[in-house]
Design goal:
By secondary structure, the chain is an all-alpha fold. It has eight helices and no strands.
Length: about 180
Amino acid sequence: MNLVLSWDLFVIVFFALIIAYSFIVGRNITLKIIIATYIAILTADGIGNILGSYVSPRVLNLIFPRLDVFSAAIVLKILLFVTVIVFLAMRGEFQVNLGEGSSRFFSILVNGFFGFLSAGLIVSTILFYISGGSFLQVTGAITSETILSLKRDSSLVRNLVDYYNIWFSIPAIAFAVSSFVKKGE
């Protein structure tokens, strides 16, 4: 059997790992990770933009010697993004408690669904940052050759980047709906 490495395979494996992890930690921790991801998105974007605007390109070249300034800013945003998620998920002083569902099968299904949404949010955000996107600054069309070539080579990457606003919105909507449904029971 010949296994062809592709970006589609990478995205599928990343989704599978995050979904598997969500089954390990449970629905409440998965929801905590989703909330931490939203906080991390804004933190990484804000700090990355500040550093990109006020730190000398020479300093960025010292930190990331083989990267141009644009790529160094992207790597910095992604590192901040992941660091804040991990820190808040492990040490964040907030809890999410939706309680138990009515049936074990339904609880497993909901946990898998939130794991899928968490994976989509995290992967699409990383791809969004690679594309040069920013939430806090108005950016034009995607000009990063890296993301353009990834989009040409991978339909999954293309969908994650092109429909980023959906991947960004659905976890929050699902969390709000599940909170409302739980209050109604």
